[in-house]
Amino acid sequence: MSTSNKKSQYNVAKVMHWIVAFIAVLLLMSGWRAEELAPDSRLWFMMIHSGLGSLVFALMLFRWWWRRNHKLYSPRQWYKKPSMLLQWFFYPLLLIHPLIGVTQAAFNSYDVSAFGLVNFSALAAENEALFAIFHKMHTITALLLIFILFIHIADKSRRFFVEDSNEHL
């Protein structure tokens, strides 16, 4: 494979990374406020939130397929690299988190429709106990994502400053 072709494949992966990162951070920052919103505002908010969460799920599936199909990011001894290990947590969590959100919405007492197109609330009958369980799981996976995100930022920052300072020696 030519170097330019491989570079373009990495560029697609990088663009996907930043799109997912932007949307995921937006969702993680905004999700905490949903319960405080007035009912009319909450319906609108949840329509956008669930739609963006579904988009993250679809983009993560595509990213995973893209990386595996083009054999990207598989250096030797990848298990010794912190950033590669973090991906083993990030990818599944970024797939599981929206699924838990959909399940939570299925048991919700009000309609949750992704971008107003897919009614997740229609998937199951309202069930307060199951909603509470999946709401808690959604909160826990959000906290895990935030924790891993901070580790990822710290790792990238460390490598940026360490590698950058070594280049000047």
Salient structural properties:
169 residues, mainly alpha, Fumarate Reductase Cytochrome B subunit, two-stranded antiparallel ribbon, 4 helices, elongated
Strand arrangement in the largest pleated sheet: 1-2
Mean pLDDT: 87
CATH class: Mainly Alpha
Number of beta strands = 2
Structural class: mainly alpha
- Pattern of helices and strands: HHHEEH
Q: Low-confidence segments, ≥5 residues, pLDDT <50?
A: none
Which percent band covers the strand fraction?
under 5%
CATH level 3 topology: Fumarate Reductase Cytochrome B subunit
Q: Tell me the distance between the termini.
A: 34 Å
DSSP summary: helix tally:
4
* Assigned CATH architecture: Up-down Bundle
Structure explained in plain terms:
The protein is mainly alpha-helical and 169 residues long. It has one domain: Fumarate Reductase Cytochrome B subunit (Up-down Bundle). The chain contains 4 helices and 2 strands. Strand 1 (113-114) and strand 2 form a beta hairpin. The longest helix is centred in the last third of the chain and has 40 residues, at 128-167. The two termini are 34 Å apart. The model has no long low-confidence stretch (mean pLDDT 87).
Ordered list of secondary-structure elements with their pairings:
Layout: H1 3-30, H2 39-69, H3 82-106, E1 113-114, E2 118-119, H4 128-167
Antiparallel strand pairs: 1-2
Helix pairs in contact: 1-2, 2-3, 3-4
What is this entry, summarized?
The chain has 169 residues and is mainly alpha-helical. The chain has helices at residues 3-30, 39-69, 82-106, 128-167; strands at residues 113-114, 118-119. It is built from 4 helices and 2 strands; from the N terminus they run H-H-H-E-E-H.
